[in-house]
């Protein structure tokens, strides 16, 4: 069996699937017939092909029926081994197991003339399907988790060289692989020696799936690659530009020169940044992955040349390598430190308000803007280079080296827009509320001495009732004065009257 040049291709080959079903079904009935014949010999009953599809013999009433049930269970194990070699994919084991036993059900229906009604027969079929599926998936998974053997068959197919020498070498490699499906032979693994011999074939390719085994496509040629330790991916977007997603891992070319020139998966053509997806920039008429800078923006015209505005930040083309020997080897505002290009914190200086992006203003030589209180739930809710704190407030942050996604976390910091970030200023963790100290019980106050009861005031003596005043006597009427009463002449006590003296 010649292995395809792609691994788990998305295209379904109807002819291949039909041949696989036919092969598995044939081996299923071949093994079942041989086991039933062996059971007939042990039980001393005549041989009959009818026992393979006769559902009426499956009961729980006698020893012969129990032997027939044991035969079916053993055959389910052999069917799982068949799926391991013919199908070879854990993801498809359930489909093929159900197909095999569904066709067996149809054949039993045609033979008996009616649908089986015995509960024992249905329970046995369910148990057989479960054993076949679980065991086949386990064996296929063990193979998929191993180092991937590289045989010569894909190379022969890539070059369309179906010579007897190439085919025989491929079959020998496959034979070694088949006998060592749990422990592959060292000669089939991708060792440095095998890599050099494999590169001499130089199979051609146009996309990643054209390269077989541990190889990646670059510039129309398949090159040997090695997996990146600790990486995981589901699509090319989960891997850096210098790597390719294959077998659920990110792979990079073994040759450092090829790694520098590596362009990753198929790139979309573009004429402007708007033709690309988010977090991509248009460079040389191709959409390539980008990385955010420290510059904020509202449209792409606010950014430097060849930069695009996404999520309120200017994005530039992601460098293909982080190794450096001097600062000139690093892009943008990065500097070379310990042989690696590292990110720096950009301090924007200004002289006038025109030097700052709106609505920022120039204050004391720095571009500043009014910080409005904002609420957030996740980091993507915050604009620009801000991150969401535990208090659901947007706080300034800065990007550090490293990429991330739903399957890959940052070693330090948090993940925003598939890149690792840290807070520009340490975010103080909320202090736990101090537990209220138990209030001391108040000391009982001494009971006041009882005050002597005041003596009752003597009741005031009742005032004597006033005696009734006597009625006033009528005043006597004045006596009438006499009318012609001569007035008495005053008596002279002093000087004598002069007239008398004369």
Explain what this protein looks like in three dimensions.
Its main location: Golgi. One of its GO terms (cellular component) is Golgi membrane. The strands form five sheets. A four-stranded antiparallel β-sheet has the order 1-2-4-3. The chain has a four-stranded antiparallel β-sheet with strand order 5-6-8-7, with no helix packed on it. With 502 residues, it is α+β, with helices and mostly antiparallel strands. It is flat and about 180 Å long. The model is unreliable at 1-10, 148-201 and 370-374 (pLDDT under 50). It has helices at 14-43, 63-86, 93-112, 119-144, 153-158, 164-179, 192-199, 256-261, 498-501, and strands at residues 215-218, 221-227, 244-246, 249-253, 280-283, 286-296, 308-310, 313-317, 335-337, 340-342, 361-363, 366-368, 386-388, 394-403, 414-416, 419-423. Among the domains are: 14-144, no CATH class; 153-261, no CATH class; 321-370, no CATH class; 373-423, no CATH class. 28% of the residues lie in helices and 15% in strands. A hairpin with a 2-residue loop joins strand 11 (361-363) and strand 12. The longest helix is centred in the N-terminal third of the chain and has 30 residues, at 14-43. Helix 1 packs antiparallel against helix 2 and helix 1 (14-43) crosses helix 3.
